[in-house]
Design brief:
The structure is a homodimer of 139-residue chains. By secondary structure, the first copy, chain A, is α+β, with helices and mostly antiparallel strands. The first copy, chain A, has 2 domains: 47 residues, Arc Repressor Mutant, subunit A; 52 residues, Ferric-uptake regulator, C-terminal dimerisarion domain (Dna Ligase, domain 1, 2-Layer Sandwich), CATH 3.30.1490.190. Helix content of chain A is 36%, strand content 19%. The first copy, chain A, contains 5 helices and 5 strands; from the N terminus they run αααββββαβα. In chain A, strands 4-3-5 form a 3-stranded mixed β-sheet. In chain A, strand 3 and strand 4 form a beta hairpin. In chain A, helix 1 crosses helix 2, helix 1 packs across helix 3 and helix 2 crosses helix 3. The longest helix of chain A is centred in the middle third of the chain and has 13 residues. Chain A starts with 15 loop residues before the first helix and ends with a helix. At the A-B interface, helix 1, helix 2, strand 1, strand 2 and strand 3 of A face helix 1, helix 2, strand 1, strand 2 and strand 3 of B. The structure holds a DNA duplex (30 and 30 nucleotides).
Chain lengths: 139, 139
DNA sequence: AACTAAACAGTAACTATTGCTAATTGAAAA
DNA sequence: TTTTCAATTAGCAATAGTTACTGTTTAGTT
């Protein structure tokens, strides 16, 4: 008899809904929204619900199968410094801090060289544990 | 008599609400949310409304006084490629494309060197006109 | 002081996302 | 193969961030 452990990984099931969503995402590079994925999925599974799409997107992200493109949360943050500068986002506490390193214009040049388009500006964010949360986690 | 022109810039007024919001934003580096700004503003102007906060944030952003940190829209986009790679966001049509350039691990090293924290990964996005919109704008 | 369009407060509406519940189902065990 | 059961689902209600609307106020000009 095994004692319940917080290390125990929840068993994942491969459902046709999840499979469909993953196939849709893998077959495009257009970085679609949940709503678009939902519309596509309904072409294959007409009864799939939007909630299922969101739940599977979360699960797939958690398992490292896909990426979600936002700033760690769905609402906007505002920055009183309009000069371009880089940010560090703590994945634990959600804090957003400025990173004290110079902006690198050569990144934009490289992007233009590979045909990305006409670059006006760029954004760079680092994700990880801020010094405070890092200390807390260590024990 | 002057013909109405789409080039005419709307006259901006400096209201105490706008001034307060800008001061709040300029006095912090914590990248606050609209709601936090609203709460702070109410300490000075108890009757200010949340709508006013949002309206002024938009205006201030439009005038280049502040920055908004999101992916160009409030909802998430998903990416079927879980490998880190860079993105190009078209400010005109909103399309998100992959940028065909290698990921630069040294950026993370630099961020750690300046004390940002423990970096797990980073994200780099370029903003500008995609080749298609660029062609359209040119005439 | 008078004027007027910009901005306001208050509130309703909208939209992306999450939570809830009873029913269904994938996959492991029998 | 059948049984079993927790993971997952559909459908829908609820949240939450943001935007739109309306009548009133006000900054800045005349």
């Amino acid at each position: 008899m095994e004692r319940e452990s917080h290390l125990k990984r929840a068993a994942r099931r491969m459902t046709k809904q999840k499979k469909t969503i993953l196939e849709i995402l893998r077959s495009t590079t257009s970085h679609p929204t949940a709503d678009w994925i939902y519309a596509e999925a309904r072409k294959v599974l007409p009864d799939i619900s939007l909630g299922t799409v969101y739940r599977n997107l979360h699960v797939l992200k958690e398992d490292g199968e896909i990426m979600e493109l936002n700033y760690g949360s769905t609402y906007s943050r505002y920055d009183g410094n309009p000069q371009n500068h880089y940010h560090f986002v703590c994945v634990n506490c959600g804090a957003v801090r400025d990173v004290d390193m110079p902006v690198l214009p050569e990144l934009e040049k490289r992007a233009e060289e590979v045909g990305a388009g006409e670059v006006f500006y760029h954004r760079l964010e680092f994700y990880g544990l801020c010094p405070h949360c890092r200390k807390e986690k260590r024990m």
